[in-house]
Amino acid sequence: MYDVVVVGGGAAGLSAALVLSRARRSVLVIDAGEPRNQPAAHMHGFLSRDGMPPGELLAVGRKEIAGYGGEVRAGRAVSARREGTGFTVELADGDSVSARRLVVTTGLRDELPPIEGLRERWGNDVASCPYCHGWEVRDQPIGVLGTDPRGAHQALLVRQWSDDVVYFGSQLAEEDRGKLLARGVGIVDSDVVKVLVDNDELVGVELADGSCVKRSALFVPTVFAANDGLLAQLGAEHTSDGRTTVPGVYAAGNVVDPMAQVIIAAAQGAKAGMTVNNDLVLDEAGAQRRVHGL
């Protein structure tokens, strides 16, 4: 039995495992190999790692964990249950692993609106976070899709990176319209039905009326679908410091905080790792007191 099993091998999970392995805990990370930012060529906003490919960060993290005796195993966790004072995690290959504590860092999925060609450009010239991708498309003609009420606010943010920003959407609250106009954002009262690509570059969008508008980058508010199946099975809801409502179960990163960028998810994972170790220390001290009659 491991001290801790971490389900999820992204920034949050690896950070938790690094803290725990350095604390001399036996740790296993189960990694399905599907990080949220996998389509992106680079990640940004991570101090000292700005511009690093996401896969490279994870590879370095796995190597660091191994250097402290931690293990990373490729696989998919399909279920988790409490057994005695610990937990058992079942894997898709039929194997199972047990641990005293369980950390869930399984991230989320970005669900895009059903617009032709949009998914194929995701992580390239179609993005959702201006703080992650705004600099790379600065001063370009940018479009923001109003497929969600959050689109108007997103357009206000994107305007920080370009003077040529157009909001596309057939439904826009008058208050939001006023804010966009005041900030110098163009408004097209029509929905986008297709993304136009030429020579593997986004060149514009096609509207519901058949007209086309030239754009070289798009921002779109996505629906955040948390990969929280294991937490749901256990009846665990996130509380604070990485803890959940189920003793011994912890969670960090995008599975509980969809707005967390890589650096924030990593920090949350590190904090959760410290919380786990602290709780284990207190449990062990209590058990030792009982043994010695103190």
UniProtKB/TrEMBL annotation:
Q: Which UniProt keywords apply?
A: Flavoprotein, Oxidoreductase
InterPro entries, from UniProt?
FAD/NAD-bd_sf, FAD/NAD-binding_dom, Ferredoxin-NADP_redctase_2
Q: Oxidoreductase among the record's keywords?
A: yes
Q: Which transformation does this protein catalyse, written as a reaction?
A: [thioredoxin]-dithiol + NADP(+) = [thioredoxin]-disulfide + NADPH + H(+)
Does this entry carry the keyword Oxidoreductase?
yes
Pfam assignment, any one: Pyr_redox_2
User: Per its UniProt entry, which superkingdom is the organism in?
Assistant: Bacteria
Q: State which residue ranges cross the membrane.
A: none
MF terms from GO for this chain are: thioredoxin-disulfide reductase (NADPH) activity
Coiled-coil annotation reads none
Which intervals hold domain FAD/NAD(P)-binding?
A: 2-269
Q: Provide the protein name.
A: Thioredoxin reductase (NADPH)
Q: Which organism is it from?
A: Allokutzneria albata
